[in-house]
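DM from R.C. (forwarded with permission)

"hey, sorry to bug you on a friday — could you get me a structure for this? deadline for the figure draft is monday and I only need the backbone to look sensible"
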Amino acid sequence: MKTIAVISRKGGAGKTTVAVNLAAALREQGARAVLADADPLRSSSEALRAHSLSVVETSASKLFALTTASRRSGGDLLIIDTPAAPEGDVVAAIKVADLCLVVSRPTYLDVAAALKTLELLRQLRASGLIVLNQCPSARQGREPRQVSSTLDALRFAGVPVAPTPLRVRQAYQAALSEGQGVTEWEPRGQAAAEVRALAEIVRRKVLGDLPAQPANDAMAPPAMAARP
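My reply, with the result:
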């Protein structure tokens, strides 16, 4: 069982949207996934309240116990929607994670916050990957300057970046309003294709060539009291 922490210490970057859609897409790809909502706002839990995907409300202090319970339950992946603050809670999520996804918009302040998070990951010797989110769409096959300059700066700094940016698309909010991920709400849409590409990258990084399971093979939540 592997653990993925979805992190953003800058409000509005879309951390919860990424966590929810990634969990749904990974489940679609055959991974037995549980989404752990460690954000006090409980946005992931609210979005997926009627979803068959397993969602567990928890807190930073209970993440280690939750990872142990998830492993015993036979899960493949535990995806943590982390709190934005305090730093101690973010550190707790990083320490239990096999991979940290740092969500950032392609703006100066967002990238600055993401780079500070990556420095924290380095200090803790944790594996990380930046996911650019809410990017303007490419036009005629060319990235908008805002996105291309951000990618150039990150690559020049030697920062690992997911190769497929997630774009600004209405499908994300429309899907969440129906308690779904975009891969379910609009399976053939562009947002779904982007999320599946991200899920495949994550899946291969942490699980390798996991044999596919039926997409409806839902996993029961870990047998523990995970609520704070």
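R.C.: lifesaver. The chain has one domain: 2-207.
me: no worries. The chain has a mean pLDDT of 87.
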